[in-house]
Amino acid sequence: MKTCIIYNSYSGNTRSVAEKVHVACGGELIEAVSKEYSSRLSMYTRGCYRAMKGMCDPIGQAVIDVAADDLIVIGTPVWAGRATPAINAAVAALDGCAGKKAVIFATCGGKEGDTLPMLKKALEENGVIVAGEFVFDKTGIKDTTRINAMISAIKSAGSVP
Q: How many whole angstroms from its chain centre is CA 101?
């Protein structure tokens, strides 16, 4: 199974989960980094507004080619109840994703809001089949049982029948 793990992380929580998936499943690990913000304050003020509007930030990857991958894993922090603008841009940059399966996850300090339903909708509009959805709150990101459950779901979704 060839896996592409795409994530965005500012506090390091989403990165830590993505890295655990990478260690367990291998594949390519891609960080979608926004080029939009000059400070942490602007990142949260402008970034949350942009997240609420479903906007995309400029990121380092104009195209993320997943044609050779069997499975896509996407992780995002929750900003104002939505995926970050960098993850919105990463989803928009996906190439060769039609018919692929994906597992998505969000990390949050409290409620995940509409993050996963909106991320799932954006992926499905590109022909991606979402095979699993996971939310990790501030205690969940350290819960190895929950992370291992997601890793099992990733391995299961990526296996060829």
A: 13
